[in-house]
What we know:
The protein has helices at residues 14-17, 19-30, 33-59, 61-99, 102-127. The chain is mainly alpha-helical.
Amino acid sequence: MISGPAMGCPMPSDEATNPIDQFLRSSKQLFTPENLVADAAMDIVRNEVRQHLERKIREDPALARELKDAVKELLEARAMEYSAIIRVSAAIARLGIGSVPEAMKDKLAKELASFVSRELSAVVDKTL
Length: 128
């Protein structure tokens, strides 16, 4: 698509497309006193709420255990969800490989194995 004065579309000014000017403008907005004060106030409020909740948990051991157990169950449920997703993906891959002509099965299986290997390596690298 052609743009510019001849097409009735204004051309962006050099200033608008200059990355340094964009960075400086965004930095000015980032460090405005209004934002700094509001952000600091929100941090103070969050800290107060966190301290209040931590105090309540320390005061009630049964509640602390309940929360700990619930978080553990949540993490286990997430792990089970990921496990199910992996099993569904494997079944879909088997279905896909089984649906292609015999001449393509070996090539597709090798490409799929290579892809899975790369992806798993990336996941392991990120988690270690």
